[in-house]
Each structure stands twice: as structure tokens, then as C-alpha cells.
Amino acid sequence: IDFALANKPLLGKKILVSAGPTQESIDPVRYITNHSSGKMGYAIAKAAFCLGADVTLVSGPTHLKVPYGITCIDVISAKDMYESIIESASHQDYIIMSAAVGDYAVQEIADEKIKKNDETLTLDLQKNKDILYELGQRKQANQVLCGFAMETSDLILHAKEKLEKKNCDMIVANHLKTAGAGFQGDTNVVTMITQDDMLDYGLMSKEELAYVILETLMDLEGQRC
Ligand code: CTP
Ligand code: CA
Predict the structure, then answer these.
(1) How many independent structural domains does the chain possess?
(2) Is residue 142 annotated as part of the catalytic site, yes or no?
(3) Which pLDDT score, from 0 to 100, does residue 179 have?
(4) For residue 178, what pLDDT is reported?
């Protein structure tokens, strides 16, 4: 066997991974964001590169170093992320949306710093476009599309709904309320949901989980041929 090839099952494949949070400006000094660290997405990007893939990482603001060999497109807002992902989506074999995309953006960003004059402050928010949904709408026959789901209740039910609604091949459902799972840590606890299967995983490092996710997606692609 060609040893190099045997260890590079994703050689020749193009993979787009999104990671991290997004930031929605309120005024020149403030923004709305979430607790995503980007670790899961960065781990997937690194694992995909190690398996031979041509990896593009679209990343919201994180404190992480871009792994060796990976092209990283830095974005700030959900709108920026939408634009750069949609632009490169059609060339990709696998798209993995691990970013925690902000659901709402401030309707009118103030030009000047908002002063604390009143006792209460109301911000009008507008729903952002759902990138994964749009990718599902445009999905090509040979493309593999993977999303994540963050839930604090009815995890499986909500994740299955997202799988259908967003036309994904797999949803990695995060047990946000379980110890060792979620946004900031180095470990995760997930259930992977595909059209035909539900795979439960116990506590795992994000590095290890990255390989499991990619292997599961490769299996799904293999079953199509
Ligand atoms: N997602 C996206 N674009 C958005 C919001 C979410 O692409 N504007 C993607 C996320 O990257 C993730 C998946 O959709 O892969 C599910 O995100 P999640 O926040 O769990 O679900 P939502 O569909 O946003 O619904 P809700 O937050 O109300 O549960
Ligand atoms: Ca959301």
C-alpha cells in the first residue's frame, strides 16, 4: 500500500470549516457575542489537514492560533461570515458549520458611543440569515454538510428538527448542560445524528472528537458511492 495515501484519506478533498463566535456591533465600543471559544472548529480544521484535506477555516474572533497549513479567513459579524462562506461553498466537498453564529444583529449601529442617559435602554435586533440553512438549500449532490446544535433542553428532538430543516447530512448535538461539554473547555459530550443513525459519545477531547466527526462524515460520503 501507498503508506502516505493510506494515512491521508481526505487527500484531494476540499473542506470548509467555520468556527468561533460572531460579534454584532452596538456602537463603536460595544458588541453582542456568545461564549464560543472556537476550539471545536479549530480542532476539526487541524484534523482535516492532517488527514490530507485542503482546508479553509472561516473564523469569528477567537484567541486561538491558526493551525499549520490552513487558510484562515477572519470575520467579525454573522453577515461577514455568511458572505465569505456562501462565496466559497460551491467548491467544497465537505462543509462543517461549527461556528456559533449570532442569531440577531443590532438593526442600527450607533455612529457614536451610546451615553448612559436613561434608566433603561432598548436595542432593536434583526434576525441574521441562517448560513447552514442557505448551504442546505444550495447543497450539491456530492457535498457533505454538517451542522452543530447547541441545546439546553430536548436535545435530540431539536437536533433532529435542525437536521431536516437545514437539509444536513449530520448534526453534532452538544449536551450543553452536561459536565465537560460545551463552549469553553477542551472536552465535549455529543450525540451525532444522521438521517439513519444516532451515535452517542461520552466525554472526549475536542481533538479526538474532531477525528470521529470527520470519520463519520467520510463514512456517509462512502455510503453514497
Ligand atoms: N447557524 C448558521 N447560521 C445562523 C445560525 C446558526 O449557520 N445564523 C448554524 C450553526 O453554525 C450550527 C447550526 O446552525 O451549525 C445550529 O445552530 P443553533 O444555534 O444550535 O440553532 P439555530 O438554528 O440558530 O436555532 P436556535 O439558536 O434558536 O436553537
Ligand atoms: Ca442559534
Answers:
(1) 1
(2) no
(3) 86
(4) 86
Is 114 inside a domain boundary? Answer: no
Please state, in angstroms and rounded to a whole number, the distance separating the CA atoms of residues 51 and 6. Answer: 9
Q: Each residue of 92-126: pLDDT tens digit? A: 999 999 999 999 999 999 999 999 999 999 999 99
Alpha-carbon span 69 to 179, nearest angstrom: 33
Stretches in the chain below the pLDDT threshold 50? none
ipTM of the complex: 0.99
Ligand (nearest to CA of 130): 1
Residue 158 lies in a domain: yes
Q: How far is the CA of 145 from the centre of ligand 2 (A)?
A: 17
The Cα 184–Cα 127 span in angstroms is 25
Residues with CB under 5 A from ligand 2 (ion): 103
How many whole angstroms from 4 Cα to the centroid of ligand 2?
40
Residue 134 is assigned to a structural domain of this protein: yes
- For residue 40, give the CATH number of its domain: 3.40.50.10300
Quick one: pLDDT at residue 1?
56
Measured between alpha carbons, how far is 50 from 12 in angstroms, rounded to an integer? 12
What pLDDT shows up at residue 182?
A: 81
The residue whose C-alpha atom lies closest to atom 24 belonging to ligand 1 is 103
Distances (CA, A) of 196 to 3, 28, 192, 222: 33, 48, 11, 15
Ligand 1 atom with minimal separation from the 165 CA: 23
pTM over 0.90: yes
Domain that holds residue 142: 3-103+127-224
Residue 117 lies in a domain: no
Residues having CB closer than 6 A to ligand 1 are 78, 97, 99, 101, 103, 128, 130-132, 147-150, 162
